[in-house]
Amino acid sequence: DQQVKQNSPSLSVQEGRISILNCDYTNSMFDYFLWYKKYPAEGPTFLISISSIKDKNEDGRFTVFLNKSAKHLSLHIVPSQPGDSAVYFCAASEGPGTYKYIFGTGTRLKVLA
Amino acid sequence: DSGVTQTPKHLITATGQRVTLRCSPRSGDLSVYWYQQSLDQGLQFLIQYYNGEERAKGNILERFSAQQFPDLHSELNLSSLELGDSALYFCASSVDVHQPQHFGDGTRLSIL
What we know:
The structure holds 2 protein chains of 2 kinds. Chain A has strands at about 5, 10-15, 20-25, 30-40, 45-50, 55-60, 60-65, 70-75, 85-95, 100-105, 105-110. Chain A is mainly beta.
């Protein structure tokens, strides 16, 4: 049972345009969400997070949107750069005090120069 | 550099064997997490420790065990290895719950 789903295995975007990566979840108890970026042969790197009390969080070129009613979050990267080419994972944590994180299967983003 | 150190980077062994993976968390981080990533899969949460105590368990097999030592480093022990245990094993650390996790570069385990 995949509680966190990233239904697009891959995405290609032109440099300078917006990249939108999507993530759906099924557990309404999830209250903290994170996005990670992973380059080959490296561990995932934290990008941005959002608590369920918010619907938007922004950090530079990265913005995460949370739609709790739809159980959906998205990561927007504007403008996209070739260095953003990587695999992006969304992750969710269930409830305050829990240490268990559920990761999606990832979306491979390719930014074309 | 995330500050999380995992050793060894690569490990090749045979079925039925036992291995130990080691993780040193970022300085100041009390929480350590272990994940398994099989080919084309997401990261599967295995187990988490906070300041030496087990706090959460995921899909960890009974053949696998872990511990966190007083100096906060952690070890993941995998025994009676099977071909399906071949994967990348990541360690991550964080200051506390609901804080971003910082990942090491992983240990690639290959079972022949």
